[in-house]
Structure formats: structure tokens, C-alpha cells
Amino acid sequence: MPKVNLSQINTRAPKNLKKENAKAKLLKLQTKIEELQNVLYAEGKHSLLVILQGMDASGKDGAIKKVFGAVNPAGCKVFSFKKPTEIEMKHDFLWRLHQVVPEKGMIHIFNRSHYEDVLIQRVHKWIDETVVKQRFEHINAFEKLLEQSGTTVLKFYLHISPEEQLERLNERLTDPTKNWKYNQQDFEERKLWNNYMNAYEDVFENCDKVAWNIIPSDQNWYKELLIAEKIVATLESLKMAYPKVENSNLPQAAGAKSVKKK
Questions:
Q1: Euclidean distance between CA atoms 246 and 224, whole angstroms
Q2: Residue 258 located in a structural domain
Q3: Most CB within 10 Å of its CB: which of 62, 99, 105, 173?
Q4: How large is the angle between the packed helices 220-237 and 60-67, nearest 10 degrees?
């Protein structure tokens, strides 16, 4: 995609969009996602990988809860990628991702992802620019492999302003129900905001074989609506259908039914 300047992209909803209308629409979309997930699971021909990226406090956890809250847990799994473990560090950076990509019929959600390996590691200069370029190529090949194998990949960047992030981080100090989220390191990472924005802009430019969706996320209700709309549109585009009973099995089914009547 063309070079993105995140500072020029709005982080808020259009002023003419009413919150109550957006929430009402989201409820209908949640029901639709549940219905489509049932067909996805039953048909067993496709899978969906949803990747959520964003700065600390951008609302990744909340988006998962709101958008996928009605989905049958048997057909949907969430994976959060934190600092690599000692075992993971002994493999290539994509190894831990390969272990948890979705099988046919499943929706998997990555809360952070392989992109951390070209974001935080680059910002802190834990890897050099040669490695960054190599990883861009590996990521593109990885996502191409997934799509060729029947997995649709949806990538979302939750775009918040530094002002909104600071407000949310401070809430973790003042709101007892959010104290558990507090991490002083989040405030340290904030000091590198511009570096992170530059790194994200490079990711959008170099890892665009699968399109990015940049989601204004200062208002959670608008963020959730946009993600839900994209999920529904994507699942509907797969043209899925419930499997039908083969004709050869119909006599057996009829026989079983007649026995049951006795």
C-alpha cells in the first residue's frame, strides 16, 4: 500500500454517527457473526485468522470480547503473544505462530502477533535493518502460504491518539477494576511513540500483500463496529453453506426414523 502517515489519519468516529445507532448495529452484527461462524465450522472448508495490532491500551482485548462475545468457543480461539519463551527463542520467529494457525472450520484471533518481531524489536534496536527486511519477506511468504492453504487473513491496526492512550493508562492507576492491567513499562514505551509510528508505517508499506485495516479506536464503540462489519463482510464473501446429507445416506436415515417411531 502507499506510504501511510498515521498522524494524518483520524482516530475518532465521524461526528454525524450516533453512538446509540452504532451500538444497535453492532448487536445485529454480533448475531450475524455467530451465525456465520456456525456455518464456517460445519462446512469445514475455510478458516479465518484475525490479527489485532496496536499500541498499549488501544483496546485489543475489549474488541475481542465485544465482537466475538456471542461466538461458540468451540469454533473460536484467542492467542496472546507476549515476550517469547526460552524454547520459542531457540526457533525462527514464526515458529510459535505456525503452532496455532487455524485449522479448517476455525476462527483464530491473534492478540499481537508476528509483527511484534518487526516492531518492538526494531524500535529497541534488538535487530538490525538487514534482519528487519528479511523478516518483512518471511512475513509476506507466511501470510501467502496461509491464504493459499484456505485461511483468510484479516489484519487490523487499532489506531489511537497518544492523548487517548495516556488517559487509558492513567485509568489503570485510578480505577480499581483496571489496576491489574497497570505496568510501568507501558509508560516507558510511550516515550518511543514516534519510533513506533514510523515502524508501523513501514510495516503497512512492506507487509501489504494481505491488506491492513486501520481502525480509528479512540472510541471503543466505533472501533468494535468497524471490526464487526469487516468480519461479517469477509465471512459472507466465502459463500459458505451447511453440508447436506448425501443421497446414498437418505434411505438409512429414513429407516432410522421409522425405527424410532416404533
A1: 40
A2: no
A3: 105
A4: 50
**Burial category of 86 from C-beta neighbours within 10 Å (exposed 0-12, middle 13-18, buried 19 and up):** exposed
Q: What is the pLDDT of residues 217-243, one digit of tens each?
A: 999 999 999 999 999 999 999 999 999
Query: What CA–CA distance (Å, rounded) separates 58 from 208?
Result: 21
Q: What residues contact 94, with CB distance under 8 A and at least 6 apart?
A: 114, 138, 139, 142
Q: Is this prediction's pTM over 0.85?
A: yes
CATH number at 210 reads 3.40.50.300
Q: Which domain holds residue 231?
A: 6-238
Mean of all residue pLDDT scores within the chain:
95
What percent helix, strand, coil does the chain show, rounded to 5? 55, 10, 30
Task: Count structural domains, the chain.
Answer: 1
The answer as to whether 145 is a domain residue is yes
- Cα atoms found within 13 Å of the Cα of residue 180, Cβ hemisphere only: 1
Query: Which secondary-structure segment (H or E) carries 7?
Result: none
DSSP state of 246: -
Place of cell 448425501: 246
Is 255 within a domain?
Answer: no
Cβ-Cβ contacts under 8 Å for 42 (sequence gap 6 or more)? 105, 242, 243
